[in-house]
Design goal:
six-stranded parallel sheet, alpha/beta, glucose-6-phosphate dehydrogenase activity, NAD(P)-bd_dom_sf, nine-stranded mixed sheet, binds 6-O-phosphono-beta-D-glucopyranose, single chain, 21% strand, G6P_DH, 14 helices
């Protein structure tokens, strides 16, 4: 592992993302010994004029109540908070960034290590509108200058652009300032335990290898549901909608890992090469295979315009034009204010040919990977009903992580991904060409929605979403199974 001083700079330090995700993830890394006090310093940067202690007070509560936290942590919390310093400044003027650079350099001089190098990690927990200026400022004022080596890296959050053109413009701008190995485009779904498990599952198990194709699989669903609405984020959400917020990034990334070919090796570039190929094989979306919805009450949010056409629910069918997947619908579904909170992948197999048990009505074999809550994988299969009867029932082979791996606390996605950025591992980050291919798939549909050519159907808060989505699913070949 690299040694030397590490400065982690959280830009947008007083915002929601930083408080709820970035700082708690850093704290968990600290608690587990991945961030050593004698090497690390954390800087918060934002426009608000507050003191170091005021920032610490804002963060403290989130650390004490985060995942894996307990009252025993309070001493750790205090020590961790002491590592944080705050610098106030604007996002588009050099003055603040010069001050930030001075603070970082002073820290480097004090901690360094004549022998060590300096590492600077800039985490942009910011609205995308300021990315261009912030990246420019970092480049002008804050790059690592140590002769002893080290690096400067930046982490950017989605939304990365609003459509193909705006994303490309942003990519070009950032690409002129930083090299691709310095840019970490974060998609936190790639940090989830069961998403990271997908490649292992597919390529380390003989069970799946011969079955994972159009000959055996009828359809695949990738589903995201939330049982709450936009909750104070209406202003942001209305500009983006569910497709940009969830489907074009989180669900599409999952699709890549479910559908891609075996990479040459586990090297990040090999994996990402295969993901890009899948994305490039996706056919243009057919508007007939899309259902949009908006929950009733969405426009009551004062930050949402009364005539908003923004979907809070969407089911979109993608079709992959290649030898493995021709004819298999990939049904991506995401919705806010639904009846449950769940993210899962459902792989539904075809009917058994020449069925002698007449068990077709009970349902098909289905392999379900539940990403959250309560990580699990289960296979729905037909077995003989135990007892004297020679009839069949649907049952499950079930691997629930909570039961099987009781001693393990599953890390938060952000924790894992931040550690990767420090280690320089880009495997779980989105490469520029991947991002472009992802926008190519969705941009025509998004433009039609933005232009009001396609309208969301109303659905009740707390429901399953518009019934039309269920009909689309059935039309695509999905068969509802019973017994689970
Ligand atoms: C974010 C979206 O990227 O993911 C939010 O902007 C959404 O709208 C969140 O609530 C869901 O993340 P998770 O990890 O809770 O599924």
């Amino acid at each position: 592992p690299e040694s030397g001083c590490l400065s982690i700079i959280v830009l947008g330090a007083s915002g929601d993302l930083a408080k709820k995700k970035t700082f708690p993830a850093l704290f968990n890394l600290y608690r587990q010994g991945f961030l050593q006090s004698n090497e690390v310093h954390i800087f918060g940067y934002a426009r608000t004029r507050i003191t170091d202690d005021e920032l610490r007070d804002r963060i403290r509560g989130h650390l004490l109540h985060g995942k894996g936290a307990s009252s025993e942590n309070s001493e750790d919390v205090s020590k961790f908070l002491q590592l944080i310093k705050y610098v106030a400044g604007s996002y588009d003027a050099e003055e603040g960034f010069r001050l930030l650079d001075k603070e970082i350099s002073e820290h480097e001089v004090s901690k360094n290590s004549k022998e060590g190098s300096s590492r600077r990690l800039f985490y942009l927990a910011l609205p995308p509108s300021v990315y261009p200026s912030v990246c420019q400022m970092i480049k002008t004022c804050c790059m690592n200058k140590s002769d002893l080596g080290g690096w400067t890296r930046i982490v950017v959050e989605k939304p990365f652009g609003k459509d193909l053109d705006s994303a490309e413009e942003l990519s070009t701008h950032i690409g002129e300032l930083f090299d691709e190995p310095q840019i970490y485009r974060i998609d936190h779904y790639l940090g989830k335990e069961l998403v990271q498990n997908l490649l292992v599952l597919r390529f380390a198990n003989r069970f799946f290898l011969p079955l994972w194709n159009r000959d055996n699989i009828d359809n695949i669903q990738i589903v995201f549901r939330e049982d709450f609405g936009t909750e104070g984020r209406g202003g942001y959400f209305d500009e983006y909608g569910i497709i940009r917020d969830i489907i074009q990034n989180h669900l599409l990334q999952v699709l890549c890992l479910v559908a891609m070919e075996k990479p040459v090796s586990l090297k990040p570039e090999h994996i990402r090469d295969e993901k890009v190929k899948v994305l490039q094989s996706v056919l243009p979306i057919d508007a007939e295979e899309v259902v949009l919805g908006q929950y009733e009450g969405y426009i009551d949010d004062p930050t949402v315009p009364d005539n908003s056409n923004t979907p809070t629910f969407a089911t979109v069918i993608l079709r992959i034009h290649n030898e493995r997947w021709e004819g298999v619908p990939f049904i991506l579904k995401a919705g806010k204010a639904l009846n449950s909170r769940k993210a899962e992948i459902r792989v539904q197999f075809k009917d058994v040919p020449g069925d002698i048990f007449k068990c077709k009505k009970q349902g098909r074999n289905e392999f379900v990977i539940r990403l959250q809550p309560s990580e699990a994988m289960y296979m729905k299969l037909t077995v003989k009903k135990p007892g004297l009867d020679m009839s069949t029932i649907q049952s499950e082979l079930d691997l629930s992580y909570g039961q099987r791996y009781q001693e393990v606390t599953i890390p938060e996605a952000y924790e894992r991904l931040i550690l990767d950025t420090i280690r320089g591992d880009q495997q779980h980050f989105v490469r520029r060409d991947e991002l472009k291919a992802a926008w190519e798939i969705f941009t025509p549909l998004l433009h039609r929605i933005d232009d009001g050519e396609m309208k969301p159907l109303p659905y009740k808060s707390g429901s399953r979403g518009p019934v039309e989505a269920d009909s689309l699913l059935e039309k695509a070949g999905y068969v509802q199974t019973h017994g689970y």
